[in-house]
Amino acid sequence: MSLYEAKTHLSELVEQAAQGREIIIAKSGKPKARLVPLAPKDTRHLRKYGLGKGRGWIADDFDAPLPP
Q: What is the number of other CB atoms lying within 10 angstroms of the CB of residue 9?
């Protein structure tokens, strides 16, 4: 598919890619880009909010001016 065609039909191409189709975009007859679907999000390794609570410490003078 040419770059011009891709620009003209971008919304349709994004939908097709989301459904699993791979689209190659060419410029001057040479492949330049590939539009592919995103990989499924792996939620098994996401960090959970609050897991580090109580593990850190910030000094009382953390934001005090530094000496000259």
A: 14
Joined together, the tokens standing for residue 47 give: 């960090």
Q: Which pTM does this prediction carry?
A: 0.55
Distance CA 4, CA 30 (A): 13
Judge whether 29 and 20 are in contact, CB under 8 Å.
no
Q: pLDDT digit of tens for each residue in the chain (68 aa)?
A: 899 999 999 999 999 999 999 999 999 999 999 999 988 877 677 778 888 888 988 999 999 999 88
User: Domain coordinates of the chain in residue numbers?
Assistant: 3-38
